[in-house]
Amino acid sequence: MTTTPIIEARNLVMRFGGVVAVNDVSLSVADGELRCLIGPNGAGKSTFFKCLTGQLTPTSGEVLFDGKPITGLKSHEIARLRVGIKTQVPNLFNGLTARENVWLAARRNHVDRAAGKLAEAVMERFGVAALAKRVVGELAHGQRQLVELACVLAGEPRLILLDEPAAGMTDEEVERITTVIREINRTTALVVVEHDMQFIRQIARTVTVFHQGAVLVEDHVDAVLSNPMVRDVYLGKKAA
Amino acid sequence: MERLMENDALRGRLLVALTALIGVGVMFWAAATLEFFQIFQLTEFLILAILAISLAFIWGHGGILCFGQAAFFGLGGYAYALLALNDFDTGGALFLGVAIAGGFAALLGYFMFYGRLSDVYMGVVTLSVTLIFQKLMNSTAGSAYTVGKARLGGFNGIPSVPTLSSPAEPAMPLMPEQLYFVAFGALILVYLLLGLMTHSSFGRAAAAVRENETRAELIGYDVRRIKLVTFAIGGAVAGLAGALMASQRAFIDPNAFGLVLSAQALIWVIVGGLGTLVGPILGCIALQYLSLWLSEGQFRVMGAALDNNLVLGVILMTMVLAVPKGLAPTIRDGVLWLWRRARPSSDAPSAPAAAGERA
């Protein structure tokens, strides 16, 4: 294990006109770590995420992947460095089958035959092999989330960024995704944005709390959840 | 499952090759049965079908809505006419016509895709570009507007465009029957190349971009480059149609850039079936024959000949409302349905799985 963080943000700022969505955020995630980002709506989590993935170019500051600067690279270039991204809204090729979806992701790093094998293995792993021939647009929300995760994994990423993976899922599906995330984390570093505290409690070790575009607290999950400042932010109480 | 994936691609390629082979059969059959003037007419329709398949590739497969496919058609045609009139070898002129149309499509595509234009604006831009070409060529009527030995001729167009000749005998223009084989051969070849391409890795990536640009980008596909390549190939194919048409008619005028032609291409694709390559070819040829029949004026309603555009309009509306998938996919689904009905016992259990699969 190297000591270089797998991903690091240095003094990241993202401004939209007069609004500062991300305000001087520095954050560092070690290789193999599972980090959760939490914070109320509008805290800047998703914007911060988009700065990491190249969907937005930060106003100032720097992003480093495995020690190398990636600020200003385009999404597909960052993806090719083996960064897997799952957006908040399920984002798949709706007109294609589940198999084609996963295959397309695997095909980036492999020739046709190997990509097929990899796609099969990943779909088995997520229990969606039975859906292989179904057109993704016809699947239920939770199934689509799983297919999308399979898609992300098929790119064999070194780091995975998940934006609200449990959003809109049934309890059963959340349980399944919790297991899946834990399993993925055995081999891959993850950064997960979530709202659901129950879910956070189950998967997280270190938690970073966003508030008004800046990092409010960063600590072990138990410490964060019992932190009065964090409670105030979530419950909207004024800090005493 | 990886075998299935490979089989899908293999099956797709085989289907394309088989269709091309059927095309070759039709080519010889039609040559043997049709009268001379019918061959002559069909040649023009085949060339228009090449325009149809170019839009089918860009729009149906690549998901790029282009309202100005005639721009590339006209460019190819004018390039061929001007080069051939300046004593260029006709084969070379044809090749350069294709290259110029493709090159221009690449340039236009670069600004549209790298400028991140949304679909609606892309439609407006492509439409404007073709109208600008038409206006521009219309205003070149004076004797000052010449390219080498050739006068541009404004709205009168360029007459006496040299006909394609065989590379072996450059001085001998091809006979109409030979041009028929050239046009049909070109159509089959273009279909074969584009068809194989849709089943290649690039073709699958292009389909992915059509379905969801964001996801394609997030798994590492360079969306803008893929769209640019698709668009440039479509432009080059449209240029081929334009150049062949200039040779076939021995004439080209600014209507080659016209809105009418661009709109017709869209109609062929919609009627034939968006997302297929064979459909728009059939749609184009069928509608051309229909137009021809109507224009002969034998079909009358209350003593008056029907207006061609009126009938085409009604057909388009009927197709969009009643057969939204277009001819080819509907016929295919129909055949598959009959096939399953014919052997219900063996296929019944797997019916739901088969329904989700698209040919």
Could you walk me through the main structural features you see in this protein, from its secondary elements to its overall organization?
The complex is a heterodimer of chains A (240) and B (359). Chain A is α/β, with parallel strands linked by helices and 240 residues long. Chain A has a domain at 1-80 and 194-240: Rossmann fold (3-Layer(aba) Sandwich), CATH 3.40.50. Helices cover 36% and strands 25% of the residues of chain A. Chain A contains 9 helices and 10 strands. Chain A has helices at 45-53, 75-80, 98-106, 112-125, 141-154, 171-184, 197-203, 221-225, 228-235; strands at 7-16, 19-29, 34-38, 60-65, 68-69, 83-86, 159-163, 189-193, 206-211, 214-220. In chain A, the strands form 2 sheets. In chain A, strands 6-7-8-3-9-10 form a 6-stranded mixed β-sheet, with helices on both faces. In chain A, strand 9 (206-211) and strand 10 (214-220) form a beta hairpin. The longest helix of chain A has 14 residues, at 112-125. Chain A is globular and about 50 Å long. With 359 residues, chain B is mainly α. Chain B folds into 2 domains: 2-259, no CATH class; 329-359, no CATH class. Chain B is built from 15 helices and 4 strands. In chain B, the strands form 2 sheets. A two-stranded antiparallel ribbon of chain B has the order 1-2. In chain B, helix 2 runs antiparallel to helix 9 and helix 10 packs across helix 11. Mean pLDDT of chain B is 89; it is low at 346-359. Chain A binds chain B through residues 53, 55, 74-76, 79-80, 85, 87, 91-97, 99-100, 103-105, 107-108, 112-113, 115-117, 119-120, 123, 129, 132-135, 138, 151-152, 154-155, and chain B through 1-6, 9, 201, 204-205, 207-208, 210-212, 214-223, 353, 356-358.
